[in-house]
Amino acid sequence: MRPNSVRQTIAAGGRVLNGWCSIASSHLAEILGHQGYDSLTIDMQHGAIGYEAAFHMLQAISTTPAMPMVRVPWNDPAMIMKLLDAGAYGVICPMINARAEAEAFVGAGRYPPRGYRSFGPNRAVQYAGADYARHADREVLLLAMIETRAGLDAVEEIVSVAGLDGIYVGPGDLSLALGAPPSMAPTEPRVLEAMSRVRERTRRAGLIAAVHTDGAATAAQRFAEGFQLCTLQNDTRLLINAASAQVKAARDALGE
């Protein structure tokens, strides 16, 4: 089976830069996959992306060096299994608030006897290799998002779930849950303390600590704190920033 380079990088003590796709475009996903990201995540929760578009985007990412990952809309076994069958090498699941929810998530992502994932890797076997079924549980990454008070309170139980690979901190929702404005670069002490607590418990359990950021500077700070995977700005934000900068530069040059 094709090895998961994200898993390999982190196991070797390295850091992973993750890109984020919110626009339903295989062309854009292919372009981003060639820009140097270690992994590229298709956002099916808040992005404007359905299953068929995600399938084509996974195909596009697979032509690049980036590891193809998805954030599912919810802890739905049917969607998790379909996306793994389509070739996702990592699944990020939002709003995991309790041990039982983490167990259900892991169960959907692992074959028996470790889980209850149904066999039928229709595209995954083409991308990953003919021995996919034998090695998928070893290579596929399952990351549970902690972004609520309930999830924060249950972090130690969540990280103890066998088969879970890591925790992905959602600072926007976590900020809201703690009474602070949503931010990908929070400064509220209570939010930073919560993020630190999740990271510490995750690393102590031997799992991957991942987090969303608002860009390079915040990602560098999070890596220094001990996170191992950081997501940079998504495609929409990159497009907005580049387009607005071009328009401003043109208007400045014209003296407008």
**What general form does the structure show?**
globular
Domain tally: 1
Tell me the CATH architecture.
Answer: Alpha-Beta Barrel
Rg from alpha-carbon coordinates: 18 Å
Structure report:
The protein is of the alpha/beta class and 256 residues long. The protein has helices at 5-11, 26-33, 51-61, 77-85, 99-109, 124-128, 132-139, 149-153, 155-159, 171-177, 189-204, 216-225, 235-253, and strands spanning 16-21, 39-43, 67-71, 90-93, 141-146, 166-169, 208-212, 229-234. It has a single domain (5-253), classed as TIM Barrel. It has 13 helices and eight strands. An eight-stranded parallel β-barrel has the order 1-2-3-4-5-6-7-8, surrounded by nine helices. α4 (77-85) runs parallel beside α5. The longest helix is centred in the C-terminal third of the chain and has 19 residues, at 235-253. The chain starts with a helix and ends with a helix.
How are the secondary structure elements laid out?
Layout: H1 5-11, E1 16-21, H2 26-33, E2 39-43, H3 51-61, E3 67-71, H4 77-85, E4 90-93, H5 99-109, H6 124-128, H7 132-139, E5 141-146, H8 149-153, H9 155-159, E6 166-169, H10 171-177, H11 189-204, E7 208-212, H12 216-225, E8 229-234, H13 235-253
Parallel strand pairs: 1-2, 1-8, 2-3, 3-4, 4-5, 5-6, 6-7, 7-8
In brief:
47% of the residues lie in helices and 16% in strands. The protein is α/β, with parallel strands linked by helices and 256 residues long.
